[in-house]
Amino acid sequence: MYSQPKALANYGRVANIETNPLTQIVMLYDGAIKFLNLTAQDIENKDLVAKAEHSSRALDIINYLQTILDFERGGSVAVSLDKLYRSITVLILRASSELDPRLMRRAAELMIPVRDAWETNSKMPR
Predict the structure, then answer these.
(1) Taking the mean position of all CA atoms in its chain, how far away is CA 56?
(2) What pTM value is reported for the model?
(3) Is residue 84 pLDDT above 70, yes or no?
(4) By C-alpha distance, which of 32, 40, 41, 121 is closest to 85?
(5) Shortest CA distance to 61 belongs to which of 91, 94, 85?
(6) Is 84 exposed, middle or buried, given 0-12, 13-18 or 19+ CB atoms closer than 10 A?
(7) Which one, of 113, 85, 86, 108, lies nearest residue 38 by Cα?
(8) Residues 6+ apart with CB under 8 A from 48
(9) Distance between CA 87 and CA 4 in Å, rounded?
(10) Other CB atoms closer than 10 Å to residue 16's CB: what's the count?
(11) How many angstroms separate the CA atoms of 92 and 105, rounded?
(12) Residues 90 and 110 sit within 8 Å (Cβ to Cβ)
């Protein structure tokens, strides 16, 4: 899971086309949210193979977002994001082990306001 995962490699190729790093962050959030919602559907459909793949992709993206946090320049925002990512990771692992699609969707919902904030920031003039 900690080597360059396929999902992140794919996002990396697309994201490198974008010039705005904040847009790249939004794309990563979009991917994580998408994979969390797919995981919830997989649980409902009892497709445990797809559940494992989709939840792994979501966790890879969240882990990546966590590893690129800049605590020196980001200060309290980076600390808050780190706590959020840890909480979401725990929620995903719990939802996955309990096969609870509601908890999986809750993990996705927690990411949406932060994703939207990144998108707003990405559109601000530099």
Answers:
(1) 10
(2) 0.84
(3) yes
(4) 32
(5) 85
(6) middle
(7) 108
(8) 42
(9) 23
(10) 9
(11) 9
(12) no
